[in-house]
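Response to reviewer comment R2.3. The reviewers asked that we include at least one raw input/output pair. We reproduce the pair for Transaldolase here without editing.
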Amino acid sequence: MLNLYKRTSSSRVSLTCRSKTNFTAKATTYQPPSSKTSASELDLLQRYTDVVPDVFLGSSIEKPKAATVSYSVLSGIVASESLGLRPYENAILSALNFDKCRAAPDAERAQCHLNKAMVNVGALLSQEVQGKVCTDIDARLANEEGKMVSLVQQLLDMYKEVGISKEKLIFRFPATWHGIQAAKHLESEGISTQVFLVFSLVQAVAAAQAGVSVIQPNVGRTREWYNKHPGVIRDPLGPRQDAAGQSSVDPGRLLVEQVYNYTKKFHPKTKVMASGIRTKEDAMALSGVDYLVVSSKVIAELSAVPTAAGYNDGLQAMGSVDEGMDVAFSLEAAQRCGIQMMPSIDKKTFNADLGIAGEELLRQSLQQQVDQAEQILPYFSKSITASSSL
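Raw output as returned:
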C-alpha cells in the first residue's frame, strides 16, 4: 500500500496540511454603498478556485475557464430541440459531409465522422472559454496506448484544419495504466493532457509522475462507493477506525486533499480539478483547489447565498467588511505537509494499490464511457446510410 504520510501520533498528518489562512483582498478607497455590494458564495469561491460548469452549454457562468466535448455532450446536442444549440447541431451535421471521412473505408467511416463532430463542437467551444477545450479520448481504447496516441494525432490534424492550435486544447484520458502512459507520451511532445476517472491516490501519483497537466479526482462517486460499503476503512492512512462506529471521514474530499497536497509538493506544474461536486458544501470545503467542476444546480445555490465580503456600508474609508474567507487548500500548506515522495510507479504497483474502491469504480466508470460511445455511434452510421441513399 502507498505509505505517503509521516506519522507523529495516532492522528493523520495530512489533516494539518489544510490552509487555515484567511485570504483577504487588498484595501480599496472609499466607495458609497450603492456602488459596491456584497459577494455571493460563488463570487468568493471564484477568487481562489476556477469554477468550471460541468455542462458548458446553457451555463450561467460567462466565459468559463474551460469546457469539455465528449460523447455525452454530443448525445445531448443531438437529442436537443433547443434553438440555442443550433450552431452546435449544425457543427455535427457538417461533420457528416467531411470529405476525408467519406473517402475512408466503410468500417472506419462512422467513427471518422464522429471524431470530426467532436472537433467541430470543440472548435465552437474554444471561442466561448477563456482557457482550453478538453476533448475526451474514446474509452473503448482505454487499454491500448498506441491507439490512443494515434487518435489524438488525428484529432489534432482535424483541429488544425479548422484553425485551432494545440495550445488551445487538452486531451482527456481515462486514468487506466495505459491511459496515463499515452498521456505521458503526448506530454513529452508538448501536447497537454488530463486524466479523469480518478478514484485512488495511486492513479494521481502515477499521472503526476507522467507529467500530466491536469488530474481529475471524483468526489461524489468515491464517497458514494464507501457509503454503499460501510465496512470498508475510509482512511487507511488515518487513525484506526472502529468497525462498530461511523467514521466522520469523507473519502471523496479526502482523496482531493491527498491528490492536491502530493502534486503541489512534488509536481507543482500539475493542476488538480475536483469533479463530482454534489453540494455547495462540497464546493466550499474544497476551496483553493485549482479547478472545481460544478453543476448548474450547485452554481445556482452558491450564487443565491450572500456574504458580507465586499459589502461597503459607507462608514469605512479603507476596504470593506470581511473581504476574505478561510481557504481549504494552498500551495504553502501543501509544502508544509509531512508527505513523502513516492518512488516511480510501475504497472504492478499501480494495479496493486488501486484498492477495492478504485478498481471497481474505474471498471464501472469505464463501462459507462463505453456505453456512451456505443449510444452515439449509430447516429452517424444511420446518417451516413441515409445520405448515401439519396
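The longest helix spans residues 355-388. The first strand starts at residue 22 and ends at 23. Further pairs are available on request from the corresponding author.
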